Amino acid sequence: NGYAYDDQQYAIGIRCLAAPVYNYENKVIAAINLTGHISTFTDEKVKIIKEKVLQAASEASRKMGCTPK
What we know:
This protein is of the alpha+beta class. The protein has one domain. The chain is about 30% helix and about 35% strand. It has a three-stranded antiparallel β-sheet, covered by helices on one side. The radius of gyration is 13 Å and the shape is elongated.
């Protein structure tokens, strides 16, 4: 699916969503993530946050020379 989602598995009350950043060799070199408390990282916002994180990772990958598959 291209992202990782932690829904309080690591810490109660904390959610995290992350996506990889690729370089010109299509190798993972970094990740972009967003972590927040469930009071602000609500179920309703997960879809929006996921899209924003995926967009940011895609843009960073493009700037690192990654070509889409």
